[in-house]
Amino acid sequence: MPTSPLLSRISDRFSPRQSYGVLIAFDETEEGDLKPVQVSENSPRILGISPSSFFQRKCLTAFLTPDSSETLRDALDMLGESDFAASPSTFELSGRSTSNLSNPNGRPWTAFCAIHRPDPKGNPSRAILELELVDASFSKAPVPTPPLEEIEEPDYIYQSFLPPDKFPELQRMKRMRARAKARTDLPGGVRKPSDALRMVELISEIEEEFRTITDIDTFAKVLTVVFKELTEFNRVMLYVFDDQWNGAVIAEEVHPKSKSDYMGVSFPAADIPAQARDLYVINKVRLLFHREVPTSRLVCSSLEEVEQPLNMSHAFLRAMSPIHLK
Fold this sequence. Notes:
Elements: E1 10-11, E2 22-28, E3 34-40, H1 43-47, H2 51-56, H3 66-81, E4 89-96, E5 108-116, E6 126-133, H4 168-182, H5 195-211, H6 216-231, E7 235-241, E8 247-254, E9 266-267, H7 274-282, E10 298-300, H8 303-306
Antiparallel strand pairs: 1-10, 2-3, 2-6, 3-10, 4-5, 5-6, 7-8, 8-9
Helix pairs in contact: 4-5
């Protein structure tokens, strides 16, 4: 079977990307267009827009609502004014799975987004946009979900660090999440405009609580509990390095039915090599949706783009090293 020109431009040379989000690399042209040049191959499943559809348009904003087009351009302007143009800026965008926004057949979507310039000095016109749907229930690929095993809850998980009289804003947020999950008439991820103000209040009360802590062990325990409540992750660990870059887990908050715990476990320096540590200094946020979900490749608009691997150092969607997935 002959290979199509588009499929021949799918690049395996680049760092793989996690497939829970879409990555779009685009160039700002002299005419002011935002021309897509590289798009992850999973864009049809998540956004309902194929890479070829992106490439056929002069400007990425053809798929965005007018307000979101302005939001994207404002985010680009802020990158231009920042000394940290390579650090991702986050916001939300909305659009449809068609460039004809009035087409009722186009599927509407809203996504959490991050944007940065991978090489602000060498190639200031190039930017990387990453999108993760606010309501991703219909787009996620099926993943294996092993049941949590019943185990006795570790003694060191000090649940009273989150009593009813502590962190009232966090307690209120938990109740709101529970009510939202119980409702079936709301799309996933629906939030109110007051959420930003609530987050400011929450940060303030967390800061006040931390001011009262006088020892590192208590600080570590409170930090892991609060972070787990905010993120709803099944496990949160606080990992510290010694002078030789050996590591140890000094605090952990886990789901009571989790399979095992790492509290007090030490790891040799080779467990996180120097190259990986350097990347963590550059990009302090690393997310892994699921280690068994296949990664997503990039589709390039031209053979010239195939010869220009993207610098993924600051990308949230950059996949984990195969070594870390074992």
